[in-house]
Amino acid sequence: MKTSLLFLVSFLAGSLNLLTAQPATTAHNPDHPAETRENLLEVVHHLYLWYYDQSFFPPGEELSELKVYFRTVERTLDAGDNSEFGELFFPAIQMLVELKRSNYHIDEIDHAVRDEFFKIRRVQRATTAPVSLDEYRTTVVNRDELREWFSTKSHAAPPLADALREQLRDTLLKHQFDQQWDDTAVHIFYTSPLSPVSNDIWVLHENTNQLLQFSADMDVSDHATWDKLDLRLKFHQLDPNLILVPDRERTEANELNKDFIGRALFNCVVLGNRIEVLPEAVQAFLERERAPASE
Q1: Is the pLDDT score of 187 beyond 80?
Q2: CA distances from 180 to 86, 240, 281 (A)
Q3: Do 135 and 168 have their domain in common?
């Protein structure tokens, strides 16, 4: 873990050398949910863990500050949908981040979807903003506060709540049900840390050598998300053919590059939570799944 912390500090002091913060512009609105220091720091930390690539910078270049541009984005929504949208642009690290703060009600299941944080919908590499920079509000992320934030986040994630841990375990078993489970083996899963600015959970299933991506349009830490809605799920088999194919030769959108696989494994195994499912738990689950068909 010391190695991880040293790497983070090296990242901050090296290629992303954020010096003493400059005062935010008067247009910055620190009371806006997307522009609070906590939200911005969470977004930057999430970008570092999942997207940041040092190849964005020419060799030897250092940055004196990380300037953040934010603007609200208008969307045509259904009646009763009060969701908010926004956009963050980081010219220094060439990233454009689309944000959404859900706020609507699903009548069919009588469930309110309301996010406390703006959630990351999409991240893309961008050397220029889609609109004039005059349309954004700007601020600067302080090197010291970013370093402190990263240092607190560089340790292993706190344990999952028991209810969420059980829901995630049962959901994993359910989604793997058609893949001929070995009910005599101990099944090991590693889950990535939960982030308040992301609705994705990445999971490594050690037994099948698979990466699984769970995603939703609402907070994945909310129990109702798992109880009432089907999460979107993608499987990525980590076979040698996938890992050894050069990134430049990939043609399918769902293929993962080696850099991302390394990130996902680090985030799941080193920073995430380990879930161990004993054979008796697998057998009990299979019995429950098969019971309706036998009655």
Answers
A1: yes
A2: 43, 22, 15
A3: no
- 67 and 91 housed in the same domain: yes
Q: Tell me the C-alpha distance between 286 and 284, whole Å.
A: 5
When pLDDT is cut at 50, 70 and 90, the band that residue 258 belongs to is confident
Does 268 lie in the same domain as 209? yes
- Domain of 234 in residue numbering reads as 162-294
Residues 249 and 149 in one domain: no
47/174 same-domain check: no
- Tell me which of 187 and 3 has the higher pLDDT: 187
CA–CA separation, 74 vs 261, rounded Å?
34
Q: What is the pLDDT of residues 188-237, one digit of tens each?
A: 999 999 898 998 899 999 988 889 888 877 777 776 677 766 677 787 77
CA atoms within 13 A of residue 84's CA, in its CB half-sphere: 14
- Only one residue has tokens 């989604």, namely 175
pLDDT digits over 218-228, tens only? 777 776 677 76
What element of type H or E holds 248?
Answer: none
Identify whether residues 26 and 146 lie together within a single domain: yes
**Edge-to-edge strand order for the sheet containing 232-237?**
232-237, 210-215, 200-205, 187-191, 273-277
Residues in the chain: 295
Q: What is the DSSP letter of 283?
A: H
Q: State the total domains in the chain.
A: 2
Does 171 lie in the same domain as 126? no
Instruction: Report, in angstroms and rounded to the nearest whole number, the Rg of the chain calculated over CA atoms.
Output: 21
The candidate with the shortest Cα–Cα distance to 18, out of 54, 56, 67, is 67
Domain match, 246 and 269 both? yes
C-beta of residue 102 within 8 angstroms of C-beta of residue 114: yes
The pair phi, psi for residue 75, each rounded to 5°, is: -130, 145
Q: What are phi and psi of 275, to 5 degrees?
A: -115, 120
Q: Which two tokens stand for residue 163?
A: 């209810």
Single out the residue in 100, 125, 153 at which a domain terminates.
Answer: 153
* Residue carrying the six token digits 């999971």: 203
